[in-house]
Amino acid sequence: MGVDFGSLIIDLEALASSSREDFVNEFWGSYENYVKTYNSLLQDLQSLGFYKQLTPIEEVSFSDQAFDSGFSKQEKAKLREVANASSVLLQKVKLLLSPPAPTKLNSQVRSNQIFLVYDQANQMTSDVTNTLEQLELEPVIINNPQSLTDKIAAYPHVSFAIVILSPDQTKHHPTQNIIYELGILLGRLGNTNVAAIYPPKQGFEIPDDPNILSIEHKTGWYLKLIKELKAARFDVDANKLSWL
User: What angle do CA 238, 242, 244 make, to 5 degrees?
Assistant: First the structure.
């Protein structure tokens, strides 16, 4: 991926801490370096497809600087913007990489909500959505990488995910974003709680890991999905599918 998340978090923590401390102590001399650091870290994350809705911080224009009377109000406001933005971004990245909260199952059935992750609307996404709805399960849609952490935070009780491995431009590999999201969900939910559905195309490469619940989208695929859902303690009944 080209990004070391351990180093990135350390850099973000230093940026958030230093910029906040400088703002409180009324020291604004390093705000330009803070802006450049924040923008660089954000660019690293956006290169992976995350947080594309966030915009880089612009520096105060040269004409606004007040060399004869210390730092201008615009510079002070800019430092506060850096401090706030870096703190928010730090929390987002920590949530992205944080370990999952333990799921207390015991003998109880799970929530009827399931994460449904995809990056292309196609026949597979339509079939999976229709199948879940007929099984009286509610898909929680995640269709872009930057919404992943937001959805995980908003739905902490969701303990199962279905990831649709749509092909990239080569038609032989899943897209980079979807593989990354698959890895994040496997780390959070465990490999028995994430099912990957892939197209029945000759030569299509899927992650080489026997522990991943991989389901080929071919005749009867939904029966294997139902089997995995039952093993994960979901109360589902194949008789509810209208085409059976």
Answer: 60
